[in-house]
């Protein structure tokens, strides 16, 4: 965009700042012996992201793996409650907390979900839905938000 509007230097500065922030956030999270799995809830009908999606690639910077990867249904598949329960994610990210009022408590109250590792260990995290779905310079903010979550989870 900067190049198209004649602001090459300003655009290069923004990109350099974003890359620096992303590199710092990724470096702040130690490598794990076992990768963590996640379910990124886009809405209460259980649409999610795979690791191949743009959001999934951000999670991948931290070694996280989407439970949707085995669905074979593309980058933004819809999972069944049974498949989420069977996959038993280590973390649940809620990209529907602001819009739809989904909370850790409402997730835990879903039939069968109380047994999930993420629920049992208190690893349900609301994410800013604007950062999770509107990309641009705020990508660095999303990367930092994911880093803050992953830093909370013991090895």
Task: Please supply descriptive tags for the structure shown above.
single chain, 155 residues, alpha/beta, Rossmann fold, 4-stranded parallel sheet, 42% helix
CATH C-level class is Alpha Beta
Instruction: Could you tell me the CATH topology label.
Output: Rossmann fold
Query: Which structural class matches the secondary elements?
Result: alpha/beta
Total count of strands: 4
Average pLDDT figure: 91
Strand order of the largest sheet: 2-1-3-4
Task: Describe this entry's structure for a reader.
The structure is a single chain. The protein is α/β, with parallel strands linked by helices. It has one domain: Nitrogenase molybdenum iron protein domain (Rossmann fold, 3-Layer(aba) Sandwich), CATH 3.40.50.1980. It has eight helices and four strands. The protein has helices at residues 8-27, 54-60, 81-87, 97-100, 104-108, 117-120, 129-133, 139-151, and strands spanning 37-41, 65-66, 91-94, 124-126. A four-stranded parallel β-sheet has the order 2-1-3-4. Helix 2 links the parallel strand 1 and strand 2 (65-66). The longest helix has 20 residues, at 8-27. The protein is globular and about 55 Å long. It starts with 7 loop residues before the first helix and ends with a helix. The mean pLDDT is 91.
């Amino acid at each position: 965009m900067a190049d198209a509007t004649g602001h090459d230097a300003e655009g290069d500065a923004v990109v350099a700042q974003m890359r620096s922030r992303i590199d710092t956030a990724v470096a702040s999270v130690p490598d794990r012996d076992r990768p963590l799995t996640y379910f990124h809830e886009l809405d209460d009908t259980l649409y999610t992201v795979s690791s191949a999606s743009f959001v999934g690639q951000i999670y991948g910077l931290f070694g996280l793996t989407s439970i949707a990867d085995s669905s074979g249904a593309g980058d933004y598949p819809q999972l069944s409650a049974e498949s989420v329960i069977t996959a038993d994610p280590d973390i649940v990210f809620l990209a529907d907390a602001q819009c739809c009022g989904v909370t850790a408590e409402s997730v835990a109250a879903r039939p069968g979900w109380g047994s999930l590792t993420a629920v049992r260990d208190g690893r349900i995290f609301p994410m800013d839905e604007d950062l999770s779905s509107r990309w641009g310079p705020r990508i660095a903010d999303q990367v930092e938000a994911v880093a803050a979550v992953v830093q909370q989870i013991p090895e």
